[in-house]
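User: Here's a protein and a ligand (thymidine-5'-triphosphate). What would the complex look like?
Assistant: Let me lay out the input and then the predicted complex.
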Amino acid sequence: MLGAVTAPAHPTDPLPRRIAHLDMDAFFASVELLRYPQLKGLPVVIGGGRRRDDDVLARLRETYPERDWSDGDLSRIPLDFFPRLASYTGRGVITTATYAARQFGVGSAMGLMKAAKLCPQAILLPVDFDEVRRISRLFKSTILEIAPVMEDRGVDEVYIDFTDVPGGQREGGRVLARLIQKSIFQATGITCSIGVAPNKLIAKMASEFNKPNGISIVWPEDLQEKIWPLPCRKVNGVGPKADQKLQGYGIHTIGELAAREPGWLIEHFGKSYGRWLHAVSWGRDDRPVVTESEPVSMSRETTFERDLHAVRDRTELGAVFTRLCEQVADDLRRKGYAGKTIGIKLRYDNFQSVTRDVTIDHFTDDAATIRRQAGLCLKRVDLSRRIRLLGVRVGKLVKPGTEDGPAAGYSENTAAKPRTAKDKSTDEHTDLLFPELD
Ligand code: TTP
Ligand code: MG
Ligand code: MG
């Protein structure tokens, strides 16, 4: 007999929501360990540029000319052949590090030179994006064979709705989580960590509780004990700036946030963000797990290191603005979309946000057109105040040349998307619970 099963009180009652967040452990580094199993358990950091094909083999042949090296021999490479952090010079940063390396205090975003002081013996490897993408697809398809309602949240993480999956309620989701973990390991050779909770917000935090190779189950009644002691930064959507401002008011933990009146939060953080802060501190989040669907829009946004002013920081702001437009255009082209609504989003230094958009008479994926139209939108907002975040969005998307998109000349009625369609944003920090700002 397995643990508490939360059977519905009445056969027709819906089952309690159980949402899982799954995140691969030390992902880019784990991918390298598949290629070089001899590095298992050793401190390995990823960073310092892209892999060049044949580079390793060429160096091997040069160093050990007496042996006949081929692709299949990578697991035979002696440890002393691998580059060490100690010999690194440059300005690169760590992309990720194995858990063995993290014990020395090194981790994502740390400068490689600084990391070299903490753990000079760590092995330094570049990232292999092709292999990362292959494994990413593989672990996601493994999940889909078991649980069909999965939301892709990037290269190494997903949300999964356990609620109605057979066995998804057993031990609060632990049984299904274990099965998924095991299946992913069998398919890829890499471990992952899973948090199962009443919603996405809590599940995302819970997947970190027992990393690596861990499972963590959170119930609604665990809010006070497991969530409230955490720093506000653990909430996906509270960035460094918001955190700093919260700290300024003496709010360090999610519990301290929950203790504030919603009115006070709205007064200090604006209506949208203030309300959202209150909701998340009480563990509330109704966002559904959205399965793959046609995006209704694509956007890019960035939060500035320091708040910028439209006139005084004109050059810097202009450059960022252009880059965002180019990135959105790239995203559109890469995914094969074009759109006709172009918009901007601004967040001021007081956290208030505004958006403006314009619909043009043709579909575009052209950076210059997007930049021009977005520039006109920018003229329609108050630019006397300092800006902390700037975003560019292209909406009303069609996929030219596909069955559900018009072949040529584009027609607007094909832009209608299913109700489950979501906005695709490539910026992690837009994974926010608060609705699109208007
Ligand atoms: P994460 O899931 O944040 O980190 P991780 O998988 O390496 O480690 P953890 O066990 O804590 O989950 O990110 C997934 C991959 O994304 C990571 O392996 C490398 C890449 N990445 C970047 O390219 N830049 C970054 O700033 C971070 C944080 C990750
Ligand atoms: Mg990860
Ligand atoms: Mg991740």
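Summary: Residues 45 and 97 are 4 Å apart (CA to CA).
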